[in-house]
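Thread: Exosortase Q, structure

OP (GT): Posting the sequence first so everyone is looking at the same thing. Length is 299 residues per the record. Can we get the structure tokens written out before standup tomorrow? I want them in the notebook alongside the other entries.
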Amino acid sequence: MTHLLLTPRALPLAMRIDRAPALLWLGLHTAALWPTWRWMVARVADGSDEPLGLLALAVLAALLWSVRRDLRSAPRLPWLALAVLGTVGATALRSAASPLVAALLAIAAWACGLLAFLPDARRGAMRVAGGVLWPAPRHGIGTLPVLGLAVLALPLIASLQFYAGYPLRVVTAEASRWLLSPWFHVLREGSSLNVDGLLVIVDAPCSGVQMAWAGYFAACAVALWRGLGNRAFALRLPAVSALVLGGNIVRNTLLVGLEGAGRQPGAAVHQAVGLLLLAGVCGGIAWVMARPVGTLENS
């Protein structure tokens, strides 16, 4: 029997060749979904939606780059099968359903293809201890944060505003009415508030859709960085939702309170209050996601 001996210099080359089929598959799969990428670019370019999804794609690209040397040479067959079925289904739906539905299935299929080749864990950063360079502990790669970022990559802010914006505005207005009632006579009229006879409209930007996108993006990104398992990630999602809803209610209450007090906030104050609350919400979500993982959660 002939044994193939690899020199230390040839070993990295052999490892790169071993990972080539994974990169080739991911490249071909990405090319096969070209109609979806083209629709996403067109939807953002014509002003129909906002380019926030580029941040989610950037995080996924950074994840793929960080594990490029650890990609599986033998893919996980269940994820690969889902990727194939999803791609075929998205192609069939392209002419039979709305573009967003077809794109949702396509991006989910692309994420499944990525998960088929991702390793179980990624290497941590290198650290120096006693003058010697040691690899940091490996961090797991949860499937739920990857799928979540894939969905967030879609241009869906406008659609969320259309379908979920009004109910969220009603909830926000009612919560603000309750918080303002000790200082003002407040009545809710639909998604508007009557504050001491002054009608204040809780408009689309106050629905919290953008804050929700940013909050769940922060949750998925920090979960990948922290190496949270699916169970640990899922158990933290209710806290993420509470922070997003609470932050939006506080922002709306502050702005409506200023208007009710006769201190009409200008555009700069609106922006400053919104940015401060957004930073606070995302910071709180990052803290929740970065908390130490308990034994029962780590799965």
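GT: Both are above now. Quick notes for whoever picks this up: Residues 11-140 form one domain. The chain has two domains: 11-140, 157-290.
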